[in-house]
Write a structure and sequence with these properties.
Number of domains: 2
Organism: Rhodovulum sulfidophilum (Rhodobacter sulfidophilus)
Structural class: alpha/beta
Enzyme class: transferase
Number of helices: 16
Radius of gyration: 21 Å
Family: Belongs to the four-carbon acid sugar kinase family.
Keywords: ATP-binding, Carbohydrate metabolism, Kinase, Nucleotide-binding, Transferase
CATH superfamily of the largest domain: Putative sugar-binding, N-terminal domain
CATH architecture of the largest domain: 3-Layer(aba) Sandwich
Helix content: 25-40%
Distance between the termini: 34 Å
Protein name: 3-oxo-tetronate kinase
Length: about 425
């Protein structure tokens, strides 16, 4: 194994796995730490461990991440990557800063880098400020994220609140300087360096200059240049052909727990296309009016009436979400929905549903956990950063599309099914 990666949520892990596979690495993605990571990694160039650590207490996230790092080291990884969201989802308590700092200590590093940039999906960093398309992130819908609202676009300032290590900036002029300029800047001073990056050439410059760092932290796109560097060093053979991805026959369903603006647009597009729809809400679940059984009954009936997959969604506008959080508590409102959608997925998998789209990082983690999936094979890309994947364990393989809430085009739910047709 060349690269061992630790991702703070499931959809982000899948996104990173796709980018590495697309660039010629044999990738295995695990959900949590398997009992024998060495066996899982035996034929892999890269292993991506998906944790559910983005919004848990920082000390728990640190402990989980260090466990993953130790396991990846024991399995033979030469380099390491800590993956977080391209929108830098975090609060003043973490968890990006605490985890990055702890991993740096583990690898005995005085300096490392942080860069969430993903230009293909409209996330860029300039003068240390994070943009979503043409807006600062603080002016984007991410300012109203129910768990990790991003209201400060200055990543040096944001990360400084999360770690005691100094935080510096590598500006775009240095990023586009002569080969070696980035490394010279980063290694001259202890701390964590925010890297400007506005297109893919900047991301490939990171790989060119910093591939010798034991640990790089960033969004998934930051890893795109690493396979070419490994190949040039003779660590990685010529790009391997992807194994055929043969989706099992069966029925499909879409489970959306994200309240992001893009997921809401995707739900509207599905509604206009005539997909059967069922809206659920945390208060209805808490009161017992909505149960896994009632949702499964709806899905089975709707799936039996035509070829279009049913959509079950809790997605709502920020005002509705805020009212539910006020009534139930911020964490409990989300957990009620995630738990129910996980139960629904598990029940449907036992009833012939083999194709499941999940929208939202927390929701996808709950769905995969309820399905008992522990390892995934990467399949065809639906939209940038979102592939179909296939479970590698269990009696019957399942096809899953695990989508971060903000990812995908408005017709994502429709394209996902067309890709498997």
């Amino acid at each position: 194994m060349i690269l061992g990666a630790i991702a703070d949520d499931l959809t982000g892990a899948t996104d990173l796995s796709l980018i590495l596979a697309r660039n010629g690495m044999r990738v295995v993605q695990t959900i949590g730490l398997p009992d024998d990571l060495g066996a899982v990694a035996a034929e892999a160039d890269a292993v991506v461990v998906a944790l559910k650590s983005r919004t848990i207490p920082a000390e728990e996230a640190v402990a989980m991440s260090l466990d993953a790092a130790r396991a990846l080291q024991a399995a033979g990884a030469r380099r390491f990557f800590f993956k977080y969201c391209s929108t830098f989802d975090s609060t003043d308590e973490g968890n990006i800063g605490p985890v990055a700092s702890a991993l740096m200590s583990h690898f005995d590093m005085e300096c490392s880098v942080a860069c969430p940039s993903f230009p293909e999906n409209g996330r860029t960093v300039y003068q240390g400020h994070l943009f979503v398309h043409d807006r600062l992130i603080s002016d984007s819908p991410m300012k109203d994220h129910p768990l990790t609202p991003m209201r400060d676009p200055d990543l040096v300032r944001v990360l400084s609140r999360q770690t005691e290590r100094p935080v510096h900036l590598v500006p775009l002029a240095t990023m586009r300087g002569a080969p070696g300029a980035i490394a010279a800047k980063v290694t001259a001073t202890p701390g964590i360096f925010i890297l400007d990056a506005i297109d893919d050439s900047d991301l490939r410059a990171i790989a060119r200059d910093l591939a010798d760092l034991p640990l790089i932290t960033g969004g998934s796109a930051v890893a795109m240049g690493l396979p070419d560097i490994y190949r040039a060093r003779g660590w990685l053979s010529a790009a391997a052909a992807q194994a055929p991805f043969e989706a099992p026959a069966g029925k499909g369903v879409i489970l959306a727990g994200s309240c992001s603006e893009m997921t809401r647009k995707q739900i509207d597009a599905a509604r206009r296309a005539g997909l059967p729809m069922l809206q659920i809400d945390a208060e209805g679940i808490a009161e017992g009016r909505i149960t896994a059984g009632t949702v499964v009954d709806f899905v089975e009936k709707a799936a039996g009436q035509g070829p279009l997959p049913p959509v079950v969604y809790s997605s709502a506008d920020p005002g509705t979400v805020a009212r539910a959080q006020k009534a139930l508590g911020r964490m409990r409102a989300g957990e009620l929905v995630e738990t129910l959608l996980g139960e629904v997925a598990a029940s449907l998998a036992g009833r012939g549903f083999t194709r499941i789209v999940s929208a939202g990082g927390e929701t996808s983690g709950a769905v995969a956990g309820a399905l008992g999936a522990s390892a995934l094979r990467i399949g065809p890309e639906i939209d940038p950063g979102v592939p179909w994947v296939m479970t590698l364990d269990g009696e019957r393989p399942l096809c899953l599309a695990l989508k971060s809430g903000n990812f995908g085009s408005e017709d994502f739910f429709l394209k996902a099914w067309e890709l498997l047709a």
